[in-house]
Design brief:
Layout (H helix, E strand, L loop, with lengths): L1 H16 L1 E2 L20 E11 L3 E11 L3 E14 L6 E18 L3 E25 L2 E26 L3 E20 L5 H9 L2 E14 L3 E9 L1 E2 L10 E12 L20
Antiparallel strand pairs: 1-6, 2-3, 2-12, 3-4, 4-5, 5-6, 6-7, 7-8, 8-9, 9-10, 9-11, 10-12
């Protein structure tokens, strides 16, 4: 009797819960941490990003000016896609940001930077749901779409060490994320999470990141781990961990300087 009740309870849970692919409504962008220590230095990074749901391509550029001023820009394009039984389920994310910052080399191989910036992006979602039809049969059905536009303003300090063959840095970004427009239609099973997103359309994010680059002075392999904590709505569906891996190029700056030349001293003539 108890086994029958347990079986009935499991079936009831399956019927109520159904099945769907997860969708997250914030994908942390890779943090631009060039570690400038001289003027006229140009850095470019191209990387692939991976998180719990979305995969992405990310690109960054930064240039250092005299008077310890720097400009940077970053972009992200990615998402995920599934097509069970011919029913599309996808998320597509596009984002671009720019920042102005201050850099200050100190000690022998250390650099401190502080950036402030603004970015805008869009998300497009199509939902599919595996609905229970009875007699232990589930069928994938369309569950509507959502189009979201968002923006963010952020401040990002970082500190790190920079050698010819190795860069290592810690950065921490504080962002205000604004969902400027949330439009959805034809969805039933996603209504609760999208309504919750509308109620918390302004959120604060704290995002520490760890960056390592290794290679030659001009070309390095790049790795970064980004963690994201939502300080406003703990139950909102946002990605909390992402890694990106790619290649970094550095031109100008110290690379343009000629190494100092040393003329060996001639030994003194021995007197007779």
């Amino acid at each position: 009797m108890s086994r029958d009740l347990l079986t009935a309870a499991v079936i009831l849970v399956l019927i109520i819960s159904g099945c769907s692919y997860p969708h997250f409504y914030n994908t942390p962008v890779a943090q631009n941490v060039p570690l400038h220590d001289t003027c006229n230095e140009f850095t470019v990074i191209a990387a692939g990003g991976l998180g719990a749901v979305n995969q992405s391509f990310e690109a960054q550029a930064s240039y250092s000016f005299p008077m310890n001023i720097a400009l940077s820009a970053s972009c992200l394009a990615g998402g995920t896609s599934h097509k069970p039984d011919g029913i599309e389920d996808y998320s597509r994310v596009r984002y671009f940001e720019g920042a102005i910052g201050y850099y200050k080399p100190f000690a022998e191989n250390c650099s401190f930077e502080l950036y402030g910036g603004y970015g805008q992006g869009t998300q497009k979602h199509a939902f599919a749901y595996n609905e229970y039809q009875g007699s232990l049969i589930w069928t994938w059905i369309k569950d509507g779409t959502a189009d979201i536009s968002f923006s963010r303003i952020f401040i990002q300090p970082d500190i790190g060490v920079k050698y010819e063959w190795l860069d290592a840095a810690f950065s921490c970004r504080l962002s205000r994320l604004n969902f400027d427009d949330i439009a959805y239609a034809g969805t039933f099973y996603r209504t609760a999470e999208l309504t919750n997103l509308e109620k918390h359309s302004r959120m604060m994010l704290l995002e520490p990141a760890f960056t390592v680059r290794a290679g030659s002075p001009m070309v390095k392999i790049h790795f970064q781990l980004v963690l994201s904590a939502n300080l406003t709505g703990k139950d909102l569906l946002t990605e909390t961990t992402r890694v990106n891996f790619g290649i970094s190029f550095t031109l100008g700056g110290h690379q343009a300087k000629k190494p100092p030349s040393f003329t060996p001293k001639e030994p003194p003539l021995s007197g007779k």
